[in-house]
Amino acid sequence: MKNIFNHLHTEEILNRIDKLTPNSQPQWGKMDVAQMLAHCSSFQDIAMGNAVHPRGWLGILIGKFVKPIFYNDKPLARNMSTIPAILIVEEKKFETERENLKQKIITFQNNGPEKCTTYPHSFFGKLTSEQWGKGIYKHLDHHLKQFGV
Fold first, then answer.
1. CB 125 within 8 A of CB 59
2. Distance between CA atoms of 33 and 111, rounded to whole angstroms?
3. Number of domains in the chain
4. Distance between CA atoms of 39 and 33, rounded to whole angstroms?
5. Which residues have C-beta within 8 Å of that of residue 13, sequence separation ≥ 6?
6. What Gene3D superfamilies does the record tag this protein with (predicted)?
C-alpha cells in the first residue's frame, strides 16, 4: 500500500492534483471539484491534529473492527459516507482550494510520522502514524480517481 509519508507517493498525488481543472467532473458523488479539494483539505486537518471531531456511537461500536478499510490495499467504495463535519456543500474557489490542499499535503509529509495526530479518528478510532499515512494516500487517491486523474 502506498503511503503519503513516502516522497515518491506524495509527488504522484501532487502531480495528479495539478491535472485537475475547474471543469473536472466527478464520475460519482455530489461534490464538484472545488468542494472535493476542500473536503480533502479538511481531512488533512484531522490527520494533522488541527481539527478533532467527536466519535459517534457507530464508530465506537464497530470502528475498530472495520478500520482496515481505511488503510488496506482495497479501493474505497464509491459514495462511502464521510464525517459529517467535512462534508462540503457550500461553493468553493478551485484555485484557492487546490493550493490549500497541496500545502497541507506537503506540510504533513514534511512533518513526518512523528507529528501525526494522536487523536482518534471520529469513526475508526486510534490509528498509528503508518495507518494514517496509508489512509491519507488512499483517501486522496479515491477522490482523485473520482475526478478522473
1. yes
2. 27
3. 1
4. 10
5. 4, 105, 137, 140, 141, 144
6. dinb family like domain (1.20.120.450)
Flag whether the pTM goes above 0.90.
yes
Residue pLDDT, tens place only, 28-52 = 999 999 999 999 999 999 999 999 9
Cα–Cα dist 74/138, whole Å: 9
Cα–Cα distances (Å) from 102 to 44, 74, 76, 109, 135, in that order, read 10, 24, 21, 11, 17
Domain that holds residue 35: 7-20+27-146
pLDDT digits (tens, 9 = 90+) for 71-89: 999 999 998 888 888 999 9
Residue 44 lies in a domain: yes
Residue with cell 493550493: 99
Please enumerate in sequence order all residues whose Cβ is within 8 A of that of 30, keeping only pairs 6 or more positions apart, or say none: none
Contacting residues for 39 by C-beta, under 8 A, at least 6 apart: 31, 82, 86, 87, 88, 143
Which of 3, 19, 12 has the alpha carbon at shortest distance from 109?
3
Is the pLDDT reported for residue 20 higher than 90? yes
